[in-house]
Amino acid sequence: MSSFRLTLLRHGATIAPAGILTGHTDLPLSALGEQQMAGRNNYFSRFPPSSIASSDLCRCAGFARQLAGKAGLDCHIDSKLREMNFGELDGLAKAQWSEAQQAAWALWSQNPEANTGADIESWVSFSARVNAAFRAWLQVSHGNHRVMITHGGVAKALLLNWLGLPAVRHNQFWLAHAGMITLYWDDEYLPILQGIDNEVLLGA
Fold it and tell me: Which InterPro entries does the record associate with it (predicted)?
């Protein structure tokens, strides 16, 4: 496999009220989210994608299909690239959380690998799922710029795995809506993190 640029682009803001965990809850982008993603079009004009992958959830897949259509590419859509399933908390407003659910979330936030209360998907299973799906896509992808439209948690799980860091470090990576991570990838070397760009300009 030759070397290439790898871009992980998080989806834009959704119609979900602030603070709601939208793991497997399938909500579309808001008008702001659409503008945030459109603001990345200039980047893809400078660095045209050669392969595109996405979660099957609409907040990722919609832009991925648009980008693929403009580039004349197929779009690799995979449900295994979904965000973590937050169990009882998924899509539930925080005002509705019970004390037990609040406690479970506090413990998970400190160390997701050691805490799986409120029926939250285990970090071990989540990380294994998304890393296996990523590798499977690499085997069928091609070209010098491979792009994944993804979720914040998925991007964190991939980075932690590639950098050899424990799950307890997950909060040290922040990816804004439409935030972007770029890497240099070559199977003969460890992935090289080139940058994290959270400066999102709104597009038309």
Answer: His_Pase_superF_clade-1 (IPR013078), His_PPase_superfam (IPR029033), PGM_Phosphatase (IPR050275)
Whole domain around residue 139: which residue ranges? 4-17+26-85+121-197
CA 125 to chain centre: 16
52-68: per-residue pLDDT in tens? 999 999 999 999 999 99
CB contact at 8 A, 37 and 12: yes
pLDDT of residue 1: 59
**Displacement of CA 126 from its chain's centroid (Å):** 12
Does 174 map to a domain? yes
* Residue 178, domain member (yes or no): yes
Does residue 115 lie within any of the structural domains?
no
Structural domain total, the chain: 1
Query: 63: domain CATH number?
Result: 3.40.50.1240
Main-chain dihedrals φ then ψ at residue 76, nearest 5 degrees: -85, 105
Sequence length of the chain is: 204
Q: Is residue 66 a part of any domain in this protein?
A: yes
Residue 7, strand partner residues: 147, 182
Please report which helix (H) or strand (E) contains residue 5, including its range.
strand 4-10
Question: In the 8-state DSSP scheme, what is residue 14?
Answer: B
Q: Using CA atoms, how far apart are residues 86 and 199, in angstroms rounded to an integer? A: 28
> Letter for the amino acid at 68?
A
| C-beta atoms surrounding 182 within 10 Å | 18
Looking at every residue in the chain, the average pLDDT score rounds to 95
